């Protein structure tokens, strides 16, 4: 008799000799197994949450949140883009209730002195997770690399530091029109709140259509490492630097876009943009917001759309300027006015190969006039103006239309307006976004 058959016989003999013949025993055994399975299932559901992007089950740690993380070492690209997992209704309700209570800790109190604001900021530091690394954020680079290994014609990214519940239809429109013009592009959403179940549900209409979009929790210490902003971040984390009265999230978004461009290259865009043309013809480009009426030369450059190669020297110049001149009490100082003063100072150095695109490229409509794009034409003259403006935006030098969110976010998109026609011609998912 072979050793394998002998071992099998020994196993079967021990199993048979161990099982009693009493019916009562079988009844007790059945009840015990049922209770064990039930308790184990309840415990598992309460101790874990589902990774909707990576299709893995992730253990909740001390900081139990709805953040979703993939593990690139064990997750292939098909896993990243798969959308088969569904969110249970009770999980959605719990998450909704939790997110409605979120208060942005980066908004300082009003009407306080500099010393009082610094003291307030120091007291908030333990809650400001974005300034530090976490177990999830430390996966940032590997997750980004895994995502990009899936292949794409062009890398885009946006930044969202607000709660996911405030990511609205107009913000979605930026992504929608981006993929209309770049169906093979990749879009990274740099956001802790969108890297979640709620964020997944927001992105699902795009994922279901096969578009490559991925939300990932940023790691700010990693992004600024080996740059002048590393010392700036250390000073902020010390609690001795004034963040200013402007919400710190605005200035962090200014810094993160620069760090992302330097480390990865690609295209940065704000979330109040409608893309109307493919960006493949742009390289190392930034757009002028306005032109001096006398000299006909640009006078203000905006940072709402930027296209740069990886490790481009002008982006490092921007980061140096941010770290050395940071002022959280002057609106735009660390954003549009920063890129303006740096480019005015350094010019187009040899090897920089900068392109300053005209206002028509990204800012074809002045912020004071943006409301007109949303209005329904009320006369034959206005109908002709709508058609003329639409032709100008779609057939001219314009790549994207900046909507100046502070001015337009509460406006309805009226029937027959320029906005209504732009949305209709340049969206993929579309949907009803006429109301803010």
UniProtKB/TrEMBL annotation:
Compositionally biased intervals (Polar residues): 63-80
Keywords: Membrane, Transmembrane, Transmembrane helix
Gene3D superfamilies according to UniProt: 3.90.550.20
Biased composition range(s): Acidic residues: 89-101
The keyword Protein biosynthesis is annotated on this UniProt entry: no
Pfam families found in the cross-reference section: Gb3_synth, Gly_transf_sug
Spans annotated as Disordered: 61-101
InterPro entries from the UniProt entry: A1-4-GlycosylTfrase_dom, GlycoTrfase_DXD_sugar-bd_CS, Nucleotide-diphossugar_trans, Put_A1-4-GlycosylTfrase_plant
Domain of life: Eukaryota
Record-annotated Alpha 1,4-glycosyltransferase domain positions: 309-430
UniProt key word Transmembrane: yes
Residues annotated as transmembrane: 21-39, 140-161
Alphabetical list of PANTHER family matching this protein: ALPHA 1,4-GLYCOSYLTRANSFERASE FAMILY PROTEIN
Official protein name in the record: Alpha 1,4-glycosyltransferase domain-containing protein
């Amino acid at each position: 008799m072979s050793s394998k058959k002998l071992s099998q016989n020994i196993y079967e003999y021990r199993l048979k000799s161990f099982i009693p013949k009493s019916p009562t025993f079988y009844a007790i055994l059945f009840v015990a197994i049922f209770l064990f399975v039930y308790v184990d299932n309840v415990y598992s559901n309460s101790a874990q949450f589902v990774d909707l992007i990576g299709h893995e089950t992730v253990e909740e740690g001390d900081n139990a949140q709805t953040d979703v993380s993939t593990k690139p070492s064990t997750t292939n690209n098909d896993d990243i883009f798969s959308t088969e997992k569904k969110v249970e209704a009770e999980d959605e309700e719990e998450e909704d209730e939790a997110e409605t209570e979120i208060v942005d800790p980066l908004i300082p109190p009003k009407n306080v002195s500099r010393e009082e604001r610094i003291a307030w900021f120091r007291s908030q530091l333990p809650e400001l997770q974005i300034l530090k690394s976490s177990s999830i954020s430390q996966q940032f680079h590997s997750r980004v690399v895994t995502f990009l290994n899936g292949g794409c014609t062009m890398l885009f990214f946006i930044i969202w530091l607000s709660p996911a519940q405030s990511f609205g239809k107009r913000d979605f429109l930026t992504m929608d029109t981006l993929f209309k013009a770049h169906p093979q592009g990749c879009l990274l959403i740099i956001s802790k709140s969108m890297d979640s179940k709620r964020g997944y549900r927001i992105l699902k209409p795009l994922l279901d259509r096969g578009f490559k979009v991925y939300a990932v929790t940023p790691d700010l210490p990693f992004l600024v490492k080996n740059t002048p902003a590393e010392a700036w971040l250390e000073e902020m984390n010390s609690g001795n630097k004034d963040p200013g009265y402007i919400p710190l999230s605005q200035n962090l978004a200014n810094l993160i876009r620069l760090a992302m461009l330097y480390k990865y290259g690609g295209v940065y865009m704000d979330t109040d943009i409608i893309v109307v043309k493919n960006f493949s013809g742009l390289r190392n480009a930034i757009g002028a917001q306005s032109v001096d009426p006398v000299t006909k030369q640009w006078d203000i450059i905006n940072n709402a759309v930027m296209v740069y190669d990886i490790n481009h020297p002008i982006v490092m110049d921007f980061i140096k300027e941010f770290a050395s001149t940071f002022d959280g009490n002057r609106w735009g100082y660390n954003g549009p006015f920063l890129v303006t003063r740096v480019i005015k100072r350094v010019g187009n150095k040899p090897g920089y190969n900068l392109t300053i695109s005209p206002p028509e490229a990204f800012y074809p409509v002045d912020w004071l006039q943006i409301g007109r794009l949303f209005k329904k034409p009320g006369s034959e003259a206005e109908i002709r103006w709508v058609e003329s403006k639409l032709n100008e935006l779609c057939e001219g030098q314009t790549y994207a239309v900046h909507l100046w969110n502070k001015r337009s976010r509460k406006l309805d998109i009226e029937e027959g307006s320029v906005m209504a026609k732009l949305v209709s011609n340049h969206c993929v998912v579309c949907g009803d976004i006429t109301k803010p």
